[in-house]
Amino acid sequence: MQKKPNILLITTDQMRWDCLGCMGNPLIQTPNLDALAARGVLFRNAFTPDPICVPARASIMTGNYPHICTGIKDNHGKIREDQPLLTEVLKRVGCRTYAMGKLHFLPYSPPDQPRLVHGFEHVDLHESGRIVGQFDPRGESEGIEDYFDFLKSAGWFGYSRAHGVGNNDVRPCPSPLPAEYHVDHWIADCTICQIDRHRREFPDQPFFMWMSSPKPHSPYDPPRPYDAMYDPRQLPQPFGSPEMLFIRDPEIERTRQTHAVTSISPQAWQVIRSYYYACISFIDAMIGRVMAHLKQTDELDNTLVIFTADHGDLLGDFGACFKRNHLNGSVRIPFIAAGPGIARAKESNALVGLQDLLPTFAAFGGADIGQVVQGENLTRILAQPELAVRDWIYSTTEGPLGQSAMVTNSRWKYTYSEANATEEMYDQVNDPGEIRNLANDPEYQNLRGELRHMLRQCAVELEDTGLIDGDDFVHRTVDVEAFSNLPVNGMGWRWY
Question: CATH 3.40.720.10: does it fit domain 6-384?
Answer without folding.
Answer: yes
